[in-house]
Structure formats: C-alpha cells, structure tokens
Write a structure and sequence with these properties.
The chain has 371 residues and is of the alpha+beta class. The chain has helices at 23-26, 28-39, 162-172, 197-204, 210-213, 215-218, 316-333, 350-362, and strands at 44-48, 57-63, 70-76, 82-86, 101-102, 106-107, 114-115, 121-123, 142-143, 145-148, 151-154, 182-193, 227-230, 234-240, 261-268, 272-277, 280-290, 293-302. The chain folds into two domains: 44-147, Rieske [2Fe-2S] iron-sulphur domain (Rieske Iron-sulfur Protein); 166-362, Naphthalene 1,2-dioxygenase Alpha Subunit, Chain A, domain 1 (Alpha-Beta Complex), CATH 3.90.380.
Length: 371
C-alpha cells in the first residue's frame, strides 16, 4: 500500500491562517520533493565572482553540496563573457576542473575531450568512425547566470527570471554601492545543527522572538519601529537603531533618509539572507542536509572595515548560536503527537507567513506544478 506525499495549504489571510503543517519539517518524501520543486526552480547563490574577473578564468563551484550536489564551472572566455557550465565531461561523466585556474580551453583528464570556454566540444580522440558526432549534446550544458555586485546567482530550472527574485532588493538599495563590497575570508563560518532548513528560515523571518532569544541584540534594535516589506520572491525586515547604537549614514537618495537604520535584513526565496550593516554584508546561505539536519554558510563582504565588530552586526556568532538552540528545540517539539500547527501574529510574523505561502506555491498537489 502506497501513501501519497503530504500537500500543504496556508490561508492568504494571515488573520485567520494556521502555520505550515508540521509534516513539512519531518517527512522524508517532502524533503526529497523539495529538491526539485523548490531548490532547482529557484535562484541559488553560487559564490563571489572575484576569481573569474579576467578572460580565461575558470572556477569550479558546487551547487548546494549535500543536497542539489550539482558540479558547475564558471568560465570567462577571451571576449570577457562569463558563463556557468556543467563541470562534468559529456563523454563519461568525469569532473573537468578541480580548482580555480587560467586556461585557453577545458580539457578532460580522463580521455582528453576538450571544450572551448563557451562549452563547445572541440576535440575528442578515437571518435573518427562515430556517427552523428559531434552533436549539441556533446557540448557542456549551460545554466542561466546572473550577478549583483560581487555575488553570482544560478538556477537549474528557474520558475522566474532572476530579476523577479532579486530586483526588488536591488531597487530598494539602489543608493548602496554593492559593486565596491570586498569578500572577507576571515568572516566566513559554517554551522551545522539538527533542525529542518525551513525552521531556520522562518525563525530568521520574524522579529517577534528577538527580545526573548537575543537580549544583547534587542538592546541595539528599536523593536517598536521594526517593520517589514513583502515582495514577490523576497522580503525585507528593516531594523531601526536605538538611540546611541551604530546606524547607516544614509544619503538623500535613500528612501530611509533621515532615519537611523541599524540593519537591512533581506531574504530571497527560499534559502538566502542578505544582511546589510554599516560595515558591509553578511550573507547567509541555508543548505538542507536532511529533514532534520542543516548547514548555514556565513560569508562576509566588507564596505567599511572601521565599523567591523560594532552594532547589530557585531556579534553574529552569538546571535547564530542563540537561533540554533531555538530551532533545534522546535525540531524536537514537532515530534510531539500533541502538536500539528499553530497561528501567526498578524503584525510580527508577516514574513514567515509569506515564506510559508511560497512553499505551498512551489509544493503543489502531486501532478501539478507551482507557478
């Protein structure tokens, strides 16, 4: 007897809606379906682009290792065009490039098949008698690639263009020179913990817990002025600074000019956080590893190094560990037979409700596709 995978619905009216059914965080089949229905169809951060700035640059990238596990290759050709190609040889599946380098062509170390930097197969020994060879399927597949400043984005099967996911964020921060942000390796951290990836995201998406879970952070944020903005595939939590706490020096071109803003907390569906502080950007990529196992990758990009260590972006490790403790406890609580779902605060959990609605959109009933 086969059992169909759960389906999910969340009412669009947050005042009457119940939260996502707990099976989303516990069910193995839901975790498996999410790979293709959510993550393959969204835009994923592929890393910073500093090492592929020059023509002839190659840089291998792993897309969500442990989950999507797609081996990709960033390649900039002689004309300066940057592409995202498969890093798997079209002959027998060997990995092509193992570390960042400069090259005139891409050569497989297994049987010497060669490709140009646009992914076209150029040479293959011992195939003189093969029929219908070469064909387009012998070229390296290319994926759509986009960027914002130093950040690269790619999708396996995008549900919508990158602009639909990222455009509102770019417009909201048009006054900010993101192109000038510099990767800072010393700010990189990876954390792993025993909770579902979506629990981590929905915790990030509400400030209701801040006074109770992050006492040090709440001393710097004016929670009475905390607000949010919902976009199609993204949202923003705007964190105003308390009196005396560090804040952005906002130009007249900013829509928040005249306000003291401590942080811009942007989230891009389904698993990317872009946290802008006066010192720069803390990027958080959430990587699912199992129904109850998650990795979060912190990557830093510095704008003003003199402000590092100050303000709401100054104690990120402490805040992270506090968040992890909560979501691990929630994961354990969800196993209770006495709990199935809850309710939303109509004023403080709008972004979490937005996230849940998108999950339902991307995880429709079996036999249909999210739009």
């Amino acid at each position: 007897m086969t059992t169909s995978s759960p389906t999910f619905q969340v009412d669009p009216d947050i005042r009457i809606a119940s939260t996502l059914d707990k099976r989303f965080y516990l069910d193995e089949s839901v975790f498996a379906r999410s790979r293709e229905r959510i993550f393959a169809r969204s835009w994923q951060w592929i890393g910073d682009l500093a090492d592929v700035a020059s023509p002839g640059s190659l840089s291998p990238r792993d897309l969500l290792p442990g989950y999507l596990d797609e081996s990709l290759l960033l390649a900039r050709d002689r004309a300066g065009v940057l592409r995202c190609l498969s890093n798997v040889c079209t002959h027998r599946g060997n990995l092509l490039v193992h570390e960042s380098c400069r090259a005139e062509q891409i050569r497989c170390g297994y049987h010497s098949r060669r490709f140009d930097l646009a992914g076209r197969m150029m040479f293959m020994p011992a195939f003189e008698h093969a029929r219908d060879f070469p064909s387009r399927r012998d070229d390296l597949p290319e994926l759509p690639l986009g960027s914002w400043g130093p950040l690269g984005f790619v999708s396996l099967a995008a549900a919508a263009p990158l602009e639909a996911f990222l455009g509102d964020v770019r417009s909201r921060l048009a006054w900010l020179a993101v192109d000038e942000y510099v990767p800072a390796g010393h700010l990189s951290r990876d954390y792993e913990f025993d909770a579902n990836w979506a629990l981590y995201v929905e915790n990030y998406l509400e400030g209701l817990h801040v006074p109770f879970v992050h006492p040090s952070l709440s001393k710097l944020l004016d929670m009475d002025g905390y607000s949010d903005e919902l976009y199609r595939y993204a949202n923003l939590q705007l964190g105003p600074a308390r009196e005396g706490a560090p804040a952005f020096d906002l130009p007249p071109s900013s829509p928040d000019h005249g306000r003291r803003i401590a942080a811009y907390y942007f989230w891009i569906f389904p698993n990317l956080m872009l946290n802008f502080y006066p010192w720069g950007l803390s990027l958080n990529l959430v990587v699912p590893l199992g129904p109850a196992r998650t990795r979060v990758c912190f990557r830093g990009f510095v704008r003003d190094g003199s402000q590092l260590g100050s303000g709401v972006g100054g104690a990120l490790d402490q805040v992270e560990l506090e968040d992890e403790a909560i979501v691990v406890a929630v994961q354990r609580g969800l196993r209770s037979s006495l709990y199935s779902k809850g309710r939303y605060s109509p004023t403080r959990e709008r972004c979490t409700h937005h996230f849940h609605r998108l999950l339902c959109e991307f995880m429709p009933d079996d036999g249909s596709e999210g739009r």
